[in-house]
Amino acid sequence: MEITFRKAHPEEYDACVDLVNYVFSYDHRPHDFEKMIPRVYGPGKNAAELHRVAVDGMGRLWAAIACLPETLTVCGHELRAWFIGSVSVHPRARGEGFMKRLMADWDEELRESCDLAVLSGQRQRYEYFGYTSGGLKLQWTVDEANIRHALRSVDDGSFSFRPLAESPEALTLAQELHLRRPARVYRAPVLFEEGLRSFGMHPLAILKKGKAAGYLTASSDSRTINEIALEDNEDLGPVIKAFFACYRPGHVTIAASATDTALNRRLETFAESWRLEASEMIRIYRFAPVLEAYLTLRQKTLGLVPGEWSAVLGGQPVTVRVTGAGVTVEEKAAPGAPELDQKQAQSLLLSPQSCLQDGLAPAGWFPLPIFWPTADQF
Q1: What value does the mean pLDDT take over residues 286-305?
Q2: 337 belongs to a structural domain
Q3: Above 80 in pLDDT, residue 359?
Q4: Does one domain contain both 142 and 126?
Q5: Residue 272 in contact with residue 146, Cβ under 8 Å?
Q6: pLDDT-based confidence at 310, cuts 50/70/90?
Q7: From the CB of residue 96, how many other CB atoms can be counted at a distance below 10 Å?
Q8: Could you tell me the pLDDT band of residue 324, with boundaries at 50, 70 and 90?
């Protein structure tokens, strides 16, 4: 079978979507990517240019991998990020090396245009392509006993919920709250609410005495809140209590960035439990800007011990200085600085095991607090 590997043509968009839907439905449960990721695949859109495909001589698509460019702002530092998704190989074409070739083609392009790339997927599969499981995500669990006891005296009567799309005031506030985050992926205003509906989530306006007070995204069974932001963080307890009263979830899991200290401090006062886990699979293409951005974020939120560190990471020399005035990174290394290959460097910077690698870096600097909300995944 003669195969051509290239970017998809606009007229092949429907074939791309059909292939992705078929492969994911074949391997898992029924999938409809137009509903799952409406900001990319929704009605009226044509995202063919995001896809690299394997095409035979008759024009049939046998494999596709998509890559979505995203602009990431971290404490004023702008990073070029790409999120890889829709990885699909037709069952009859597996074992032919199509995925390996398409990933290699994307890798070659990203080396020229990317600071870091992100994806969700099975760890060992993507380690072959240079990705490391890492970042930081907190998962809080709140149940009815927490509401009944810890929030017993909390008055939740002022709060109510409605679909975010039905409250222009709340939608405007939601966009403003997103812009206040110290680390955020750019969300086009016209696609903001659509993005919050990614992967089956339901964006809700939070109203306080009928006026916009924030927003959240909840799963269809109301047992997962993947994103929540409030104008006044003191309202978190009453809002969660009102959510339980309105939707009766029994228990709910709330995802949060480890650097969202205001949210986490309040959840800690009444949540039943929490766990810290990796956010995504990550590949760093340019170490210096990623280090400067995320160490600045860590310094401003979680704290960072002052110090200086020099290393060669995946062939890229860096020297990092942390002072009370901030974080600076130079693209050079001191003589005799440790040299780590790509895998070793990413393990140090991204994995919780970094704290066990004595002497390789100052204590408490890593892992970098990279976090990707569901609304920005692909």
Answers
A1: 97
A2: yes
A3: no
A4: no
A5: yes
A6: very high
A7: 16
A8: very high
Residue for token digits 């070029």? 80
264 falls within a domain:
yes
The CA distance from 292 to 285, in Å, is: 14
Residue 112 lies in a domain: yes
Q: Which of 112, 130, 148 is the last residue of a domain?
A: 130
Mean pLDDT estimate for the chain: 96
Q: What is the pLDDT of residue 356?
A: 56
Of 130, 158, 186, the residue that ends a domain is 130
Question: Does 121 lie in the same domain as 7?
Answer: yes
Whether residues 316 and 202 share a domain: the answer is: no
Q: Which amino acid is at 257?
A: S
pLDDT at 281 over 80: yes
The pLDDT value given to residue 238: 98
- 198 near 211, Cβ under 8 Å? no
pLDDT, mean of residues 245-270: 97
Mean pLDDT of all residues in 314-329: 98
Q: Answer left, alpha or beta for residue 93, where phi above 0 means left and psi between -120 and 50 means alpha.
A: alpha
Residues 298 and 263 reside in one and the same domain: no
Q: How big is the chain, counted in residues?
A: 378
Q: Are residues 161 and 215 in the same domain?
A: yes
- Among residues 119, 202, 219, 201, the alpha carbon closest in space to that of 166 is found at 202
Same domain, 224 and 303: no
* Domain with 296 in it: 287-356
With beta carbons less than 8 A apart as the criterion, state whether 295 and 327 touch: yes
Cα gap 163→244, rounded to integer Å: 16
Instruction: Show the tokens assigned to 81.
Output: 């990020």
Please give the pLDDT value at position 354.
59
Percent of the chain surpassing pLDDT 70: 99
User: What average pLDDT does the segment 88-99 reach?
Assistant: 96
CA atoms within 13 A on the CB side of 43: 0
Q: Is residue 261 classed as helix, strand or coil in its secondary structure?
A: helix
Task: Indicate which CATH number applies to the domain containing 13.
Answer: 3.40.630.30
- In order, the DSSP letters of 15-27 are HHHHHHHHHHHHH
Q: Coil, strand or helix: which one is 197? A: coil
Total tally of structural domains belonging to the chain = 3
pLDDT value at residue 27:
84
User: Are residues 270 and 168 part of one domain?
Assistant: yes
Amino acid occupying residue 78? E
Note whether 236 and 300 are same-domain residues: no
Show the CA angle centred on residue 192, arms to residues 191 and 197, nearest 5°: 95
